[in-house]
Write a structure and sequence with these properties.
Layout: E1 3-7, E2 12-15, E3 18-19, H1 23-28, H2 43-57, H3 60-73, E4 82-85, H4 86-100
Antiparallel strand pairs: 1-2, 1-4, 2-3
Helix pairs in contact: 2-3
């Protein structure tokens, strides 16, 4: 199963054991120059939300339009050291896309 893992102590996030960099999401909107956060609703979680949505969709408009919802619904609720199935993110994106097309 494909997973996303977060390590609280280092604030690192991995997708299938490959590090997720904040750089591409910071080019869209720089909420957190010092990287990712999760488990609360702030600038670090906003950066992670934007990075994850952009990573999985490669759609700037979608990512910028929905990362606050994604932060509030998913990222703000993650445990300090988390493992999240990629399927959960794909389902969230699918559901949001379906609602837009109704």
């Amino acid at each position: 199963m494909k997973t996303i893992k977060g390590i609280f102590k280092t604030r690192e996030v991995f997708i299938d054991d490959k590090p997720l960099s904040p750089v591409s999401s910071q080019k869209l909107r720089n909420h957190s120059p010092d990287g990712f956060g999760w488990g609360y609703s702030g600038s670090g979680p906003a950066q992670l939300s934007l990075a994850l949505l952009f990573h999985f969709t490669r759609d700037e408009k979608f990512s910028l339009s929905h990362y606050h919802d994604f932060k509030n619904e998913i990222v703000a609720n993650l445990k300090p050291d988390f493992v999240l199935p990629v399927a959960d993110i794909e389902k969230w994106i699918f559901n949001k896309t379906c609602k837009e097309n109704i």
